[in-house]
Amino acid sequence: MHPDVTDQPPSSFNERHQLTNRERKIVFSPLGLVLTLAFSVFFIEFFVMILLYILPGMPAPIEFLLDSTILTLVLSPILYFYLFKPLLHLIKEHRQNEAELQESKINLEGKILERTAELDLTVSLLQNENDARAKVESALRDSEMRFRQIFEQSEDAIILISAEDHSFLDANPPAERLFGKGRDELITSGLAGLELPLDDNRLSEAITNIVADKLLSNIERLEYRTPDNDTRILSFRGKMIKLQETETVLATFRDITRRVRMEEDARNLQSRLIHANRMTSLGLLVSSVAHEINNPANYILSNSGLIKKAWLDIEPILEEHFQSAGDFPIGQTTWNNARTFLPDAFDGIQDGARRIGEIVENLKGYGREDQSLREGKVEINEVVRISASILGHHISRLTSKFSTELDEGLPSITGNKRQLEQVVTNLIQNALQALPNRECAVRVSTHFDKTDQEVIVRVTDNGSGISTELADHIMEPFFTTRLEQGGTGLGLAICSTIVKDHGGRLEFSSEPGIGTTFAVHLPVSRDSSNSNHTEMEENHDDIV
Fold first, then answer.
1. Which residues pair with 238 in a beta bridge?
2. Which CATH architecture has domain 373-543?
3. How far apart are the C-alpha atoms of 5 and 104, rounded to whole Å?
4. What mean pLDDT is predicted for residues 88-114?
5. Is 490:366 a contact under the CB 8 Å cutoff?
6. Assign residue 517 a region: left if phi > 0, alpha if psi is -120 to 50, beta otherwise?
7. Residues 6+ apart with CB under 8 A from 451
8. pLDDT of 442-493, one tens digit each?
9. Where does residue 315 rank: exposed (0-12), middle (13-18), buried (19+ CB within 10 A)?
10. CATH 1.10.287 location in the chain
11. pTM of the prediction?
């Protein structure tokens, strides 16, 4: 490091410059220099003349010599101090200034080199810093671009939520599609705009826990109702991230409705397979016990025939005794009562025994497609009357308002009369069991739909109705709500199968708390339809 002139003591520097300035005034002032010389020569000559005047007379050359000598001796110091000495000082100062200037130049060049080196180093550091910052900014832009691409192109709905106030910061296109709202609308409405069930606070609690604990949070199943009033099932996954130095909750929603429904379908399929296995077991069971059931039924059927024949032989004798001797006790009643109901009782015993055998055959045939129906002409109104007669005791016990509305102009259908009786009997029995008290009504009606060429049997009750949850399963085998009362869950399933085997369909409508209506739609036989049509034309001709 070269010394600088400014490093000299301020006092000596100022004194030197003060002296120099005074001398400069004399040297560089022509008028002052002339006046000084003039006055000096004048006073010297004046004193020399006085001196020569006082001294005795001298020769002129000596006077001239003395005059010039005195003038030179006196004037030389004056010239030296007032002219030459300042000039010497100026020369010396000039040389010093040149030396100082040279030294300052060297110092300045050194400082320039030093400052240049420092500047180069600073520039290099700044350049490196700028390069590093540019790389960081480029990496940050790339990261933001990748995040934006992932954010925008993700199949899942993603919403960025502020950790501070739980407000929405951003939402990707899948979130707009899932929730049926635009990005700005989602950001404005926030959590309240998702329209989750009012009693479901799990999402808000999960976000609060994420912010508080900085941990992942999952909700496996979250129900959401779309603007189209469609219920969707979502899963939620959230975690804390730092986005532009801001704590943010990354909330991911996935629509798992299809997966859940597939799982439910798989469970239903598994249930059906279990039911199919049960049906196989039932078939084996029924086959193994059918013989044991049919033997007593055949025994009852054959013996009831013998008893009926015996009754036909005994009745005239007992009637003759009644006419001659009057009424008499028989069993737990009297002959006057017994002679009216015993013939029907014998017929009922035979009919019941036949029905036992037919029911066993139906159970054996359930679950397999059997087209070998014993087809014949069937009058549906007669089927309804027989079914009501069979259930007469149950009807009188369970309701005081049982009624039938039968269309007497019904055409006959082709089918199995006993199986159709089984269907109507089962539907009436179910209606009776659904009644909460005897004041509730059951109505059975028949109707002919000319447009669809169908005979329709409707069984309507004012019972408790069927809930929406049960309605989807009520036709499934082994599904019953009366398991404790001995229900098997096969009644409606068998009825549905019988109706389908007849080419028809079994439908129902129900309103909880009001009642249920089951409708059996059966296609009429073509011959019956044509004969009815011909009969109507003949009647029309007769009227005309």
1. 217, 251
2. 2-Layer Sandwich (3.30)
3. 7
4. 83
5. yes
6. beta
7. none
8. 999 999 999 889 999 999 998 888 877 777 667 666 666 665 554 555 678 7
9. middle
10. 259-368
11. 0.40
